[in-house]
Amino acid sequence: MELGRSEMIGRSPLVRYGAATLSVVVATLLTSVLWLIVDRPISTPIFLAAIALVTWAGGLRLGIYTAALTTVVFEYYYVSPYRDYNGSVELVMRMAVFFLQGCFLAWLAERLRVAIDELSNSREELRELGLHQQTLREAEQKRMAREIHDELGQALTGLKLDLHLVKKRGWIAPGRRTKREGG
């Protein structure tokens, strides 16, 4: 079952931030497994994917939280020297760049999700508009059919009465028959 944005937003902050933290833990475990298999694997995409997925499901705030948490975990475990924050300018710059990348990715994921939601809403509106147009078209066709039927019926009834009056007054030559009478 896919956890959509509306379901994630409806949850308590503890659950949302817990899920974001869990995504970073999963990315850390996955990266650790890759480090056992491959010497110096490229693990940055795994953490960036965690940021993107959390942003997609929970919004920009959760994405920025995940970017910050990912920056700390990634720099602590996977960048040499391991498990050491020495406060060097290089470390601070690396962490800042990684954090900004994560925030930018979170912003992009949020914009993409918003654009997809808007596209979905506009498609739904277009579908409803098409149905409304079809209903209006059918109503107009019925109205026109009734109008034509009524006018034609009145004209034919008037013609029939005029013909009956003409026959009754004898304006039709004697001995001449109409088609209806068998002639």
Short description:
The protein has 183 residues and is an all-alpha fold. Helix content is 79%, strand content 0%.
What would your notes on this structure say?
With 183 residues, the chain is mainly α. It has a domain at 5-131. The protein contains five helices and no strands. The model has no long low-confidence stretch (mean pLDDT 83).
Could you describe the largest sheet, including whether it forms a barrel?
none
The averaged pLDDT comes out at: 83
Distance between the termini: 81 Å
How many strands appear in the DSSP assignment?
0
Low-pLDDT parts are none
Helix percentage range: over 70%
Helices and strands, in order, run as HHHHH
Count of DSSP helices? 5
What structural class is derived from the secondary structure elements? mainly alpha
Which keywords apply here?
183 residues
Write the layout of secondary structure elements.
Elements: H1 5-9, H2 13-37, H3 44-58, H4 60-78, H5 89-169
